[in-house]
Design a protein that fits this description.
The protein is an alpha/beta fold. Helices cover about 50% and strands about 10% of the residues.
Length: about 230
């Protein structure tokens, strides 16, 4: 069984996870702004954002060429590039690194798409476990409703159409999100997720996130020298 290692770098790694529509990206953005305003050394990275891999990913998705294995490998390549160039160097330099989704996203989505769980963990085994992983937990129906409200269309892979769950993209999306929810639920204890009720107001969630950060992290150690 693959074991994810903790790190001993000077910095701190905070990740957020959750279903599409859970509000995780909003919460980590608010956390980032707060830390910046308070003059902490902070760096932000988000899932599937490597410039080196971006064009290949876009082309594969647009042409619907990605199998579950190639889908997994291309995202792990994206992650590896950002990890080597951004995440690990800045952790070593003593920054608070904020990750809008981490390898847990792959652990959930790739396994739902049929990849072997241990294989997926192996290809991410070079990366360390976050100091805190906030999991924004929400009923899949509510999360899906937030995404689908006002959306004229869903992208093929976003809707999970490659899984043949339903011929209707909206129904496929709901079913896909339900399976991802179960995958996340099974990771809560294994990876010590800090669960946040994502049905609370944005402000309540943010205050709770900040409180937990203050309790678990020595924030003054990350203050910028003025």
């Amino acid at each position: 069984m693959v074991k994810i290692q903790k790190h001993n770098a000077a910095g701190c790694l905070i990740a957020v996870e959750g279903l599409d529509g859970s509000g995780k990206s909003t919460q980590i953005y608010l956390l980032k702004r707060w830390l910046e305003i308070e003059h902490y050394k902070v760096f932000f990275t988000e899932w599937n954002s490597s410039l080196m891999v971006k064009n290949a990913t876009k082309k594969g998705k647009t042409r619907q060429l990605l199998t579950p294995t190639t889908f997994s490998l291309i995202h792990s390549t994206d992650f590896a590039d950002r990890y080597e160039r951004q995440i690990w160097p800045l952790l070593r330099a003593g920054y608070i690194v904020l990750a809008d989704r981490y390898f847990f996203t792959a652990f959930a989505r790739d396994v739902v798409r049929g990849c072997d769980p241990e294989w997926v963990k192996t290809i991410y085994s070079f990366a360390v476990q976050p100091d805190i992983t906030f999991y924004f937990q929400i009923d899949p129906k509510i999360a899906a409703g937030r995404i689908l409200e006002g959306r004229p269309s869903l992208k093929y892979f976003e809707a999970g159409m490659d899984l043949n769950l339903s011929s209707d993209p909206y129904e496929s999306f709901r079913l896909f999100q339900g399976q991802i929810y179960e995958a996340y639920h099974n990771m809560i204890d294994e990876f010590n997720f800090t669960v946040i009720d994502a049905t609370q107001t944005v402000n309540k969630q943010q205050q709770l996130v900040r409180q937990i950060l203050r309790e678990k992290i020595d924030l003054p150690a990350y203050k910028e020298k003025m």
